[in-house]
Amino acid sequence: YVYEESCFKLLENLGLVDYYDKKLTLHTVLQIDKTSITDVPVQSLSDLPWLFLKRLMMLQRTARSVKCSSSDGTEDSEWDDDQENESDCPQSVNPLDILTAVFLCSDSFLQQEIIIKMSMCQFAVPLLLPNTDKNQITLMLWAMRDIVKKYRPHSLLDPSAFVEERIALSELPLVSFVRLGRCNISKSEILNKLLSNPQQYTDTFVHFNMDCGNISKKISDGLVEMAWYLPCGNENIDVFPEPVAIANLRGDIQSFETQYTFLCEASTAVFVFFESQLLDSQLISVPSQKSMPQLFFCGRLQQQQHKKLQSKCQDICGNKTEIAELDKKISDSSLGVEHFIREMSQLYEAAVLLPENALYQKQLEHLPKLCAQLLLDGFSLELVDGDSSNIPEKWITSVFSELNTLVEPKNKIMVVTVLGVQSSGKSTLLNTMFGVQFAVSSGRCTRGAFIQLIKVTEERKAELHCDYIVIIDTEGLKSPELAQLDNSYEHDNELATLVVGLSDVTIVNIAMENSTEMKDILQIIVHAFLRMEEIGKKHTCLFVHQNVADVSAHVSNMRDRKFLLEQLDEMTQAAAKMENKLEFKKFTDLMNYDTETGDHYIPGLWHGNPPMAPVSIGYSESSTEGLIERLVHFQNKNLLIIISLP
């Protein structure tokens, strides 16, 4: 009764109550009248449906962004786009409510035309339309019958071939997205990002940050929208290689069991978004069916704690002990593939201590080969346990032995390492240079050291003189978590010595504007290279200056280069004294460095201002092509690259 009353009230406000029984027709919508001018400010709620329809018929992508000129739609809420605000704006209506109202008041032929136009605008279309009775819904498949799509899946052998068919008759996998309880994660915005390629973002689904998207919904909860992703055949553009249908349920599945059951029966996979406090809640039971879809649960366990931490860090007088405890909770709650591989390594390390004929050892002896295959497949391997600073020597030795067996005789490698302070962009640089994907989010810093294997193609082997490049990403030096420990400096020295000793190329990120930090990092690096001198390794040094795009950069930065070299001389003397190697007086006694040829310049990372800025093309080209060319030039000289950030 409440639902019917709210529906009637909304239809009355929108001026559609008379059309609920007699229905709007295509003829009525297409006629030319005062509503045909779509850029006139709307003064009344009753004009909103007509503005939506007129704009849609003209294929304007602003069709869903309709509101009265007297409303600003500025209400705010912590909840996502599927939930109601705690307050309403009387002169605003959620776009999904307008959409639902228009479909409820349109005849079948107008519904069909509206869906065709929405599809052409790349808007999600209604699949299940809620009616005034909450136990009844309308399947809108008939209204989709005239949508014809052309696409080119990657599975087609002929590059000029394509598929053209009615989308309602296509046999496509359906992936559904639903919500359990209240949730801070906006699944609609996530879907938009998922379906958009990096060059072209599209608001396929209405979400919280759109015009009036934060207005509480009156009648559209229970609506299931559908969209399709159709590939064009270009691997550089396509997000998915094959077509897929996406369904999005508005509202809590606990309130819409019929829709949820339908989606479970029709879907290949169902993604359930939830909050951590709902982990113990009982999910809606699904009636018995021929096949059960794969269920994926998406939640943010790292977020309420992360916001406590942020507020504490902003408080200058905050309790440092409490902040450290919160930071540890966030770290302990992270879970990645590396944790599962770490468990494999620990099981294997325990097994090899058993007698050779032990059953347990035989059951686990295949694990190193599995891990070696994962490395070849592009997964990263934990070299140093970031939580205990432990290196599982037997495990690592066995994995590389199996890896060597798998790639023989093409087993020559070049090792590239990155070092620097925490959150200095080390992983981002490696990702840009080599196209890998080490974790780079600000909420999850690298812990320990990870390695990844990259195959060198035949045409580049002659230049690089190797079959594979092994890249090592390390945790940040001078970590705040270790700063309170007495042996933190020793920890950083040991980590730097380890990775420098393993590497042919060492990349070091240094912020020149922070002189104290720069001196500390340089001293750690110099310590490592002094120890390398004991085994006869002498590196060649190349400085790479970031955030410098000027063509005259080499000349104009001469003073900075001299200053940096003076600092390196000072650090060399200090480190040599600690290592009892007083014969080293200058940095050039330790490293081969030419002030004329030993510098490289790249522009800044972002083209514009984040967070909406894309990566600069100049950064990508300079870091990828320029630095790799330097690797070719210095390949046999144990190159050290230092990134300076002026």
The global form is elongated
Overall pLDDT, averaged? Answer: 75
Helix content: 25-40%
Give the strand content. 15-25%
Number of DSSP E strands: 17
**pLDDT < 50 stretches:** 72-80, 440-444, 609-614
What is the makeup of the main sheet?
Answer: 8 strands, mixed
User: What structural class should be given to the helix and strand makeup?
Assistant: alpha/beta
Q: Could you tell me how far the N terminus lies from the C terminus, measured between alpha carbons in angstroms?
A: 67 Å
Record the strand order, biggest sheet: 10-12-13-11-14-17-15-16
Per DSSP, the total helix count is 22
Estimated radius of gyration: 30 Å
Oligomer: single chain
SSE topology sketch:
Blueprint: H1 2-13, H2 19-22, H3 26-30, H4 48-57, H5 95-104, H6 108-120, E1 125-130, E2 137-139, E3 148-151, E4 163-166, E5 174-179, H7 187-195, E6 224-229, E7 244-252, H8 257-266, E8 269-275, E9 294-300, H9 304-314, H10 320-332, H11 337-351, H12 359-364, H13 367-376, E10 381-384, H14 393-407, E11 413-420, H15 426-434, E12 449-455, H16 458-464, E13 468-474, H17 488-502, E14 505-510, H18 515-533, E15 540-546, H19 553-556, H20 558-578, H21 587-590, E16 599-602, H22 617-633, E17 639-644
Parallel strand pairs: 5-7, 5-8, 8-9, 11-13, 11-14, 14-17, 15-16, 15-17
Antiparallel strand pairs: 1-2, 1-6, 3-4, 6-7, 10-12, 12-13
Helix pairs in contact: 9-10, 11-14, 13-14, 15-22, 17-18, 18-20
